[in-house]
Amino acid sequence: MDIQALLNKMTVKEKIYQLLMMNTLAYAGKKEENLTGPAAKLIFDKNYLFESGSALNSVGARRMIDIQKNYLENSKNKIPLIFTQDVIHGYRTLYPVNLAIASSFDTKLAHDCAQMAAKEASIDGVQVTFAPMVDLVRDPRWGRVMESSGEDPYLNCKMAKATVEGYQGDMGKYNIAACVKHFAAYGAAEGGRDYNCVDMGEPTLRNYYLPAYKAAIDAGVMTLMTSFNSLNGVPSAGNKWLVKDILRDEWGFDGVVISDYASFREMIVHGYAEDGKDAAYKAMEATGDIEMSSTNYPLYLEELISEGKISMEQLDKAVLRVLKLKDDLGLFDNPYRSTDVEEAEKIILCKEHRDLARYAAEESAVLLKNNGILPLKEDVSSVAVIGPLANTGEIFGNWHCGAKAEETITVLDGIKSIIGDRAKYAKGCDIEITSTDESQIAKAVKLAKKCEKVVLCLGEHQFDSGESQCKAILELPEVQYKLLNEVLKVNKNVVVLLFTGRPLAIERLDAIAPAILNMWMPGTEGGNAAANLLFARSVPSGKITMSFPRVSGQCPIYYNSYNTGRPKLQKDLVREKYTSSYLDVLNSPLYPFGYGMSYSTFEYSDKAIDKTTMTRGEKIIASVKVKNTGNYKCKEIVQLYIRDLVGSIVRPVKELKGFEKIELDIGEEKTVTFEIDEESLAFYGADLTKKAESGKFQVFIGASSDCEPFAEFELK
Ligand code: BGC
Q1: Is the pLDDT reported for residue 22 higher than 90?
Q2: What is the pLDDT of residue 575?
Q3: From the candidates 86, 152, 194, 260, which is the catalytic residue?
Q4: What angle do CA 183, 184, 187 make, to 5 degrees?
Q5: Is 713 helix (H, G, I), strand (E, B) or coil?
């Protein structure tokens, strides 16, 4: 399509409407009938509704076809709509939440899950997904940590790239365009409270928060979403420095920039724009292209152009980016793209997708504690499957694209599929965060007393993490502790399966539970994955990518922090006067970044680097031997960390710079090597340019971030 020629034929108003994204249902009926409900409150010229550029939220293949058809029949320019949806951790087949997938440290898995989600979504009428979310997170109080890959920028970049490539592939039939979000630093919301402001210096922004957005762009992401938060006082939707100067000019991103939901309008509420006109002005100055679910562009852009405040060139550039996206999606050739009702029925939730979902949930689970009770034996006489999350399909996670609980395998189903009726169920208590009802505990205790083993499914409701689901208290509700304690009184053989979208503060749980297997929110096949892990049909290998605090008051908490001028010297002592510490709790997390157990054991030996001096352009090879010394064939995630000892600005106590997931037979030993190059030492220093500064570096290799340096080298 000659999009320039198309643009030349459009009136100013028609161009402006290409920048509008309304809810899909707004385009479902006749022109006059539409815009009922909340959409009706967005006053703009309804005669142009059918010139709008894009639609938010999918409606399934059949309705998508009807709506696109209706739209095109009513539209003057007949430029197809783009259909968008939050396909975040799967479509109808749900994979574990993104924080869980990250715990697999398996970028191919992240890629494959995105690819399969794209396949289901594309045939069901979706062309753009609002993913990946690559916001770096350090505070599990924030509900959206479930959508992230955790606290580490290096892993975040790897996952960003893999996910973008999974969705987009070569933009064939089964691919969809990705949208990296939320630009920028949305994950640093103050106090872990959603939509809250972010204040941070540029070195922190550039060294930790921005790299993953950039990695997505380098991977070819076609669109980007700005964030709700203000950054150093300026809401991202109208942040010219962030979007125009850094994203467009410095990084060269020429894809479509989409606002977050009504965030142009919210600039007024932030106190950054005087009114809708000012908001439209600031958004356009920042080169925002698509306005999602508010209508300041349609209402005010024309006026701003006639007053000369916004140029026609600015508008044209934005519209051309939207038209190019439509062209790249192939919509001018086929406005329905890959939408196919029959294929959707066949492929959505098909065995291949479910198999991947199960595998992903197994790879993502993290064994947090095991006193030896795990794995269970398949000839067990009976298992009491207890808890508010034991017999529910509501473990598929927050972004669910219309998935239903009944499509999800429950833990009880999963265990029954291995041991049949020897699995018995009692609920024990409710999952609601405010529930204090203890009336169901007695029945569960009675069951626990009769059974050989107990699998106790605790945690949080799947919708208690996600957008706006923030918590000040990360501890488990009292009623769940009461249930656990009562069960322990009659049966010590208790395995806790934890279901959560975020790190919880489970110090008390760790103290009393014989074993804790963290399933996160494991998706459609969660129950089968849990059962396979419990009975060692699959061996846990995941490692957490966000530190688990001991208590909520430690948040934010992350491994790659600074040393301070007064670091705590005695790590295991609570009170240490005049050091950076608490009076009442240790500094260290309950479980550190990169931590996770296996049913097997490993021996790390012969850690080495091949030289102790690095001249610029050279590489250092770090290596280690890892041996499986246990009784299970299994996987291990070997991690490399580096500490830059002195910098023009202070440097973290350690930073992940490499990882490798290896598979080891019983007794097998493998040598793992990592390349350290100048790029892996580079950072934005005092002068805000990125470079590796000369000096000394420590090298660490270990099974988690809680490891000691074994060597030092110098960069000359
Ligand atoms: C969220 C985005 C999402 C958008 C569209 C917003 O509330 O912040 O992540 O993509 O809604 O559903």
Answers
A1: yes
A2: 85
A3: 260
A4: 110
A5: strand
Say whether pLDDT at 257 is over 80.
yes
Pocket test for ligand 1, best of 261, 294, 399, 400 (most atoms within 8 A of CB): 261
Q: Verify whether ligand 1 is closer than 6 Å to residue 86 (CB atom).
A: yes
Compute, in angstroms, the gap from residue 56 CA to the centroid of ligand 1.
10
Q: What is the pLDDT of residue 382?
A: 98
* Binding site membership of 124 for ligand 1 (Cβ less than 6 Å): no
Q: Which structure tokens are listed for 222?
A: 């076609």
Which is nearest to 530 in space by CA: 642, 443, 413? 413
- Among residues 542, 523, 579, the alpha carbon closest in space to that of 704 is found at 542
What are the phi and psi torsion angles at 426 (to 5°)? Answer: -145, 140
423/493 Cα distance (integer angstroms): 15
- Annotated active-site residue 464? The verdict is no
Say which residue the tokens 């001991």 belong to: 550
Q: Is 261 in the pocket of ligand 1 (CB under 6 A)?
A: yes
Percent pLDDT > 70 in the chain is 98
* Ligand 1 atom closest to 292 (CA): 5
Is residue 644 lining ligand 1, measured as CB closer than 6 Å? Answer: no
**pLDDT over threshold 70, residue 658:** yes
pLDDT higher than threshold 80 for residue 34: no
3-state class of 7 per DSSP? helix
Q: What is the pLDDT of residue 41?
A: 60
How far is ligand 1, taken at its centre, from the CA of residue 260, in Å?
A: 6
Nearest to 185 by CA among 167, 203, 169, 171: 203
Structure tokens at 182: 């939320």
The bridge status of strand 234-235 relative to strand 230-231 is antiparallel
Side by side, which strands form the sheet with 223-226? 179-183, 223-226, 256-258
Which residue shows structure tokens 């969705």? Answer: 167
- 241 three-class SS: helix
Quote the CA–CA distance of 539 and 354 in Å, as a whole number.
19
- pLDDT tens-digit profile of 505-558? 999 999 999 999 999 999 999 999 999 999 999 999 999 999 999 999 999 999
CA-to-CA distance for 213 and 209, rounded, in angstroms? 8
CA angle 654, 659, 662 (to 5 degrees): 145
With a 6 Å cutoff on the Cβ, whether 291 touches ligand 1 is no
Nearest to 654 by CA among 716, 706, 692: 706
Helix (H) / strand (E) containing 673: strand 669-676
**Do 417 and 531 contact (CB within 8 A), yes or no?**
yes
The answer to whether residue 325 scores a pLDDT higher than 70 is yes
> Which ligand 1 atom is at minimum distance from the Cα of 147?
9
Q: Is the pLDDT of residue 303 over 90?
A: yes
CB of 135 closer than 6 angstroms to any ligand 1 atom = no
- Residue 31 has a pLDDT of 67
Nearest CA among 236, 246, 227 for reference residue 182: 227
Identify the pLDDT of residue 42.
Answer: 63
Q: Which residue has the tokens 């973008």?
A: 164
CA of 400 to the centre of ligand 1 (A): 13
Structure tokens at 571: 């790590």
The pTM for the full model equals: 0.98
Q: How many CA atoms lie within 13 A of 637 on its CB side?
A: 29
Rg over alpha carbons for the chain, rounded to the nearest Å, is 26
- Residue 430's alpha-carbon distances to 390, 414, 434, in angstroms, are 11, 21, 9
Judged against a pLDDT cut of 60, whether residue 621 lies above it is answered with yes
Does residue 260's CB lie within 6 angstroms of at least one atom of ligand 1?
A: yes
Number of H helices, E strands in the chain: 21, 26
What is the model's pLDDT at position 39? Answer: 57
Q: Residue 36 pLDDT more than 70?
A: no
